[in-house]
Amino acid sequence: MxxxxxxxxxxxxxxxxxxxxxxxxxxxxxxxxxxxxxxNDLQVTQDEYQNEDVAKACYEIAxxxxxxxxxx
Length: 72
Description:
Elements: E1 14-15, E2 20-21, H1 26-42, H2 51-70
Antiparallel strand pairs: 1-2
Helix pairs in contact: 1-2
């Protein structure tokens, strides 16, 4: 993957009175959804894992979901 990570575009864009409000990226949305499953699957106390490792895993899942979504 290149230095530029595909964020999938806005997850929930809205139109404000004067400008478009992009909201969170689809990548962030996918990572947030992934963390629910990851944390449920861990079923351990916070002392038993590193937050950075969990966050990295969730964004790796999000990146894979965006890549799969881009396939035709």
